[in-house]
Amino acid sequence: MSGFSNITLIDLDTIELSNLNRQFLFKKKHIGLPKAQVAAQAIHHMSSSSCITPIVDNIKASQFDALWFETFDIAINALDNLDARRHVNLMCQAAKIPLIETGTAGYVGQTTVIQNNLTECFECQPKPVEQKTFPVCTIRNTPSSMIHCVVWAKDYLFSQIFGDKSENSQYLDSDDPDDSKMIKEAENLSKLIESITDPNFQNLLFDSVFGYSIQVLLELDKLWESRQKPTCLYFDSFLQSVPSTTSTPTFDLKQILDINTCFQIWCSSLKALVSRSQITSLISFDKDDSDALQFVASSANIRAHIFGIPNESIFQIKAMAGNIIPAIATTNAIIAGIAVMQAIKVVSGNIANCKTVYYTYGGNRPQYLYKEPLLKPNPDCSICQAKYFLLSADFSTVKLQDLVSFIQTYQHNICSDEYFSLLEGNRILYDPDFQDNLPKTLESLNVFPGTILSITPEDDHQKGSFLCAVKRNGNVDQSLSIELSGNSKLDTGSKNLVPQKRKIETSPDAVESKKAESLNGTTSSTDQQTKSSGNKQLLIDLDSNEQNTVYLDDD
Question: How many distinct structural domains can be found in the chain?
Answer without folding.
Answer: 3
